[in-house]
Amino acid sequence: MLRLVIGNKNYSSWSLRPWLLLQGLGIPFEEITLKLDTPEFAREIKRYSPAGRVPVLLDGELAVWDSLAITEYLAEKFPDLSVWPSDPAARARARSVCAEMHSGFASLRSALPMNVRASLPGCGWSMAVQADVDRITGIWTDLLERSGGPFLFGKFGAADAFYAPVASRSATYALKLAPEALAYRDRILAMPAMQQWCAAGRAEAEFLIHDEPYSRAP
Ligand SMILES: N[C@@H](CCC(=O)N[C@@H](CS)C(=O)NCC(=O)O)C(=O)O
2-81 architecture in CATH? Predict the structure, then answer.
């Protein structure tokens, strides 16, 4: 059985990506949760990954770390599932938008950290954040037009999982989205797996000050 090491569901956007991919594709796995910013995290993560970060996918003795490497591993292990689209051009586009998320959108990611349980309308907004939001919603609109939806490449896959934390952030920070982007955002948030992740995130009690730039410690 595959195992996925993840961080707090309220905060860990990188953990959400492979977790949602596994869930959305119906791949069975066990979850190992390590609470971020704790001595236990620092101690335990070394057992799983030399990189010291979550997510980590464990397949027997093999540890695969980093969300993009995990995604590629799953695509190779489950070639009949829609991790990537089957059409080569669509697959190249899917890899491009995942790589763009993986290495980009620094303004959005730093000013609007994922925080499932919070409601912070308008917090963190800047022109740079808006430029990231515009680019992301441009990606969504273009891909949905090409594929016809309901997901970015028709069937649910890696690209949807990579942008799922933006769906969560757009709810937390009440981002203004065009109707097509809003409808896609709502489809992601309505996925049973996404609801399950968010419910678990809301139930968590940890407060990480570095991830809460607009709140006071309780
Ligand atoms: N590029 C990595 C990023 C992973 C990452 O930054 N994970 C954060 C949690 S969301 C982490 O493990 N932080 C713990 C630490 O840095 O001590 C990926 O795509 O998996």
Answer: 3-Layer(aba) Sandwich (3.40)
